[in-house]
Write a structure and sequence with these properties.
- The chain is mainly α and 199 residues long.
- The chain has helices at residues 11-24, 28-50, 54-71, 78-113, 124-132, 135-146, 151-158, 162-190.
């Protein structure tokens, strides 16, 4: 009797293949099932890869699940799913950490160039300029600098996203810098500094 090679597929691998095929074809039920079945695996992996808190890891998992829903290929086994998820999660962690570093550098540049960032005593001129700002903009500046709050904290206090806070602050600080430069130009033109001085 000739030897016959077994062509049977493990039920778990067949289920994995059918599941990923459904995800690849965009079936909502398959996407939901994939999310439920692989969420914990992706979360543990995000924790290990990033060594960050749960909030960070959850953001990573959300990014990964969105990528899965959009571009996941059909995979032949559970092991193949694990390999694919491991690669995608690690890439997502690296991308988000790089993004955070870029954001911190931008924030540092804005703070270093802001007239109020280097004036711990808050000069009378700065206080006057804050009084001239729109109430919301003045509050943003006070929370960020006088209150030493992070962008996310400022956003939560004012019901804004961190990106919205960043944009508003950038515009407000640019306006303050222009006023400071105009004040300096006027002072040089008249031979004196017209800004109020701190007693």
């Amino acid at each position: 009797m000739p030897f016959e090679h077994s062509t049977s597929v493990h039920p778990a691998d067949e289920a994995a293949r059918l599941l990923t095929r459904g995800v690849a074809q965009g079936h909502p039920r398959a996407v939901a099932d994939f999310y439920e079945q692989w969420f914990d695996f992706a979360l543990r992996l995000a924790h290990r890869a990033s060594r960050r808190d749960e909030s960070f890891a959850l953001d990573i998992v959300q990014d990964v699940m969105i990528k899965a829903a959009r571009s996941m290929p059909e995979l032949e086994s559970r092991a193949a799913i694990e390999r694919w998820l491991t690669r995608v999660v690690c890439n997502a962690v690296v991308d988000r950490l790089r993004s955070e570093r870029r954001r911190r550098r931008r924030e540092a540049q804005v703070e270093q160039s802001a007239p109020i960032a280097s004036d711990a005593g808050a000069s009378e001129w700065v206080r006057e300029q804050l009084r001239l700002l729109h109430d919301d903009d003045a509050l943003l500046v006070r929370l960020r600098y006088a209150g030493a709050m992070k962008l996310r904290g400022v956003g939560q206090a004012m019901d804004l996203s961190a990106d919205a806070v960043r944009g508003r602050l950038r515009g407000t600080l640019s306006a303050l810098r222009r006023r400071a430069e105009e004040g300096d130009s006027d002072a040089h033109g008249h031979g004196q500094d017209t800004r109020p001085r701190t007693p």
